[in-house]
């Protein structure tokens, strides 16, 4: 393991245990066993480390979640259900729980992190759903409506539950306990918009 990798892994553990704001670069250098000034050869700031942590989360999403949106050959119910359940499983893995528990509260304090999370968690899925709904409407498989509004209505339900997870006293496996409710949301949405 390189020094930079060691700093990165120690940062995740220490930020998760003690809090991002409670630790300085000097503390991280000490935990790795290097001089305080040496840490700046690898990271310019704590924020840069945090953005690397965010990039690990995004890499996981690109590998496990984004491809699900491209599988539009599935019938709509299976398309929605697969995205919903596989996304839940992804975010409930121990590593992703650790990363999101660290990152989500900090999105309100760090502008660069806020911009990334807004884009990846809100704008990209919403745009993908809007495109999908437009396709369904053109094929006569969905009631004509505003595709972006439909995307917001559909996706907001999942965003709500994702954020609720971090406000509960028992966040671990929170999303998995609501899978039947998520399926009911899919049914309700499909019935309302007459998706076949």
From TrEMBL:
The keyword DNA-binding applies. It holds the Pfam family TetR_C_7. The keyword Nucleotide-binding does not apply. Keywords: DNA-binding. One of its GO terms (molecular function) is DNA binding. Gene3D superfamilies: Tetracycline Repressor, domain 2. Residues 1-61 form the HTH tetR-type domain. Residues 24-43 bind DNA. It comes from the Bacteria. This is Transcriptional regulator, TetR family. It comes from Acholeplasma oculi. The lineage of its organism: Bacteria, Bacillati, Mycoplasmatota, Mollicutes, Acholeplasmatales.
